[in-house]
Design a protein that fits this description.
- The complex is a heterodimer.
- Chain A contains 14 helices and no strands.
- Chain B has 15 helices and no strands.
- By secondary structure, chain B is mainly alpha-helical.
- The chains are: A mainly alpha, B mainly alpha.
- Chains A and B meet through helix 1, helix 3, helix 4, helix 5 and helix 6 of A and helix 1, helix 2, helix 4, helix 5 and helix 6 of B.
């Protein structure tokens, strides 16, 4: 990907002005706003002894929050990968009245402030809400049946018996905010997919199911994984929409970002920073993974 | 994106699948896909939006507008507008500078720089707030500087103390946190766009005797204006709607450091639901305007969406 015209010899490539100014400004702004404050967080943790650090990040309440945040984020991202695929397919392949409106609406979770999303979702899925009155008895009944069938697992603690203000609330909020990622990474790939590929498969005798699973899905796989990882990363850090609908009971429906805020409010800066550092490392690893995935999917696509 | 699918769509009738018969799914798959998609979009997107406006108008138009006569609500709106008015231009200038040096020049470490620009999207909003508390809080570097016995630049310390200049639990912290969370929006919109446009037009302008600034204002800016606008509206929506990061640095002082989303939280926790949803409705309206503008740009210019979607 060369931005330099081949007609311009290499030694003259900085003939455009403003390189020093723009790079200098970019680096100082990046340093001041992002890098120095982020380093401060790590330096603060470096000042802690190993025992202090372990005590801060491995207490039962913190471990429970990590389990919940990672588990539910993973689940929400998986659900988004599945429904995101269907949504992207419908938006690219089918025409129907309201398609453009549906396409525009997919971005709503990006545009709607998270606090607004949180109170709106709890208004819908709470017991006295629009859907909650209908769905909550079904959910509670299902959990009760599971408890009878498989009594050695504490299903009520695992799945909760309410929708809003319990664990399912966390899942609803995280699914909402992760919804656009898979759709938006998949749409361009799906639109560029050559119809010839599918025609060739059909000519060679594949039925529609074989074409879908052996030709189309492998082609879309990198984009689905990228969207999944983006949704997962976003869900891990989400705070605003979750706190309004989760119920926030410690060791049950308390997510990691909320725990960080709780520690801060108790002036436990070290504890908050230690928990934050673990989350930061997790998100950096995810960012790295997403970048690698995107490189891989681009290479995969060009062949 | 919109362009590619619209042209495909034009060939098929409404409600029909696209493409020759052999590569179509059976009708029941189409029906199932459409049903699932509609249920998902209605349950997760349309209903929450409708809920905001319905709950806001539950006790009538009078109660709705009463929510905005409160002085705390007005100061929250004012603070949100002020924050966006600083954060958006700051990130706009940064975005243009960053994409200028990344798209128009070759240098070592460019891909690292691009990754670093994306970094704030990977950081949880709560942690974005926390890092500013660590730097500027009472126990942070800034707090220790104010307390120091023999500081560097003693006159600055004296002046800051005399002014009672605070960053955390005050407006500067809110602005900083908002800048952090909206940091990549303009840059990541412009970088792929300017990379695709290349440098030929700028070279031509320079060859014809234009100065650097003339080239920038008359050649580059007209070329990127839609991408710029696109980045700005997304950046603005996030700056006005940010909750987590601002919540950490604000201190929740009513009428002083509450932005609109924080005001919504306070009203909601006080069981003042109509007012909470009324302020939310204003924010939801902003989101809708953002989506409409964004879609208009996409439809009119049929621009190809960059592979990485904005977060």
């Amino acid at each position: 990907m060369s931005q330099v015209s081949p007609l311009i010899p290499r030694f003259r490539r900085r003939v455009l002005p403003g390189f020093g100014l723009s790079l200098g400004f970019t680096l100082s702004y990046l340093g001041l706003i992002v890098l120095i404050p982020l380093t401060a967080a790590f330096l603060r943790t470096a000042g802690m002894s190993w025992e202090e650090f372990v005590a801060a990040v491995a207490s039962p309440r913190v471990v429970a929050a990590y389990k919940l945040s990672f588990g539910v984020s993973l689940l929400a991202a998986l659900v988004n990968a599945f429904f995101g695929f269907i949504l992207a397919w419908v938006l690219v392949r089918y025409t129907f009245p309201g398609r453009r409106i549906m396409d525009a609406l997919v971005d709503l979770p990006f545009a709607l402030p998270t606090a607004v999303a949180g109170i709106a979702l709890s208004a819908i899925y709470a017991k006295n809400g629009w859907l909650g009155g209908l769905l909550e008895p079904i959910w509670a009944g299902g959990v009760g049946k599971l408890a009878n069938l498989v009594p050695w697992v504490d299903w009520k603690a695992l799945l909760g018996d309410k929708l809003a203000f319990d664990r399912p609330g966390v899942f609803i909020a995280l699914t909402f905010i992760g919804l656009p990622f898979v759709v938006r990474t998949l749409q361009p790939v799906l639109a560029e997919l050559q119809p010839e590929l599918e025609e060739a498969a059909a000519t060679l005798g594949a039925n529609r199911w074989q074409t879908m699973t052996r030709v189309i899905l492998p082609e879309l796989f990198p984009a689905i994984i990228t969207g999944f990882a983006l949704a997962f990363a976003r869900a891990l850090g989400e705070y605003g929409s979750v706190v309004f609908i989760a119920g926030n009971q410690p060791q049950h429906s308390e997510i990691v970002p909320l725990l960080i805020i709780t520690k801060l409010e108790q002036y436990d800066y070290r504890g908050a920073t230690a928990i934050a550092c673990v989350m930061l490392v997790a998100s950096f690893v995810l960012l790295l993974l997403i970048n690698l995935l995107q490189k891989w999917s681009r290479r995969y696509h060009q062949i | 994106m919109a362009g590619a699918s619209t042209s495909l769509a034009a060939k098929a009738g409404a409600g029909r699948a696209v493409g020759p018969r052999v590569i179509r799914n059976p009708w029941w798959v189409r029906v199932a896909f459409m049903t699932v998609a509609f249920i998902f979009v209605i349950g997760f997107l349309l209903l929450p939006l409708a809920a905001v406006f319905t709950e806001a108008l539950r006790k009538g138009v009078g109660a709705f507008f009463a929510a905005f006569t409160d002085s705390d609500a007005l100061s929250a709106i004012k603070l949100t507008l002020t924050t966006a008015a600083i954060a958006v231009p700051a990130n706009l200038v940064f975005g243009v500078a960053a994409s200028w040096c990344i798209a128009k020049f070759e240098f070592r470490g460019k891909s690292i720089l691009i990754t670093l620009i994306d970094l704030p999207f990977a950081v949880s909003p709560v942690i974005s707030g926390l890092i500013y508390v660590l730097v500027f809080g009472a126990q942070g570097w800034y707090g220790r500087y104010l307390d120091a016995e023999s500081p560097m630049l003693p006159w600055l310390q004296q002046w800051l103390i005399a002014q009672d200049f605070r960053i955390i639990f005050a407006v500067p912290g809110i602005v900083l946190a908002s800048i952090f969370v909206t940091f990549p929006f303009v840059a990541r919109e412009l970088i792929p766009l300017m990379q695709a446009q290349g440098t030929d037009e700028e070279y031509a302008a320079l060859t014809l005797g234009a100065s650097g600034w003339q080239t920038f204002w008359r050649v580059t800016v007209p070329n990127i204006k839609w991408g710029l606008f696109y980045g700005v509206i997304l950046c603005n929506a996030r700056a006005m709607g940010e909750f987590g990061a601002v919540s950490v640095v604000s201190g929740h002082i009513r009428g002083v450091t509450n932005t609109m989303p924080l005001h919504v939280e306070i009203l909601y926790n006080e069981y003042n639901f109509v007012a909470a949803f009324a302020v939310s409705a204003l924010l939801a309206l902003l989101a809708l305007v953002t989506l409409v503008l964004k879609s208009l740009i996409e439809w009119q210019h049929q621009r190809v969406r960059p592979e990485k979607t904005s977060a």
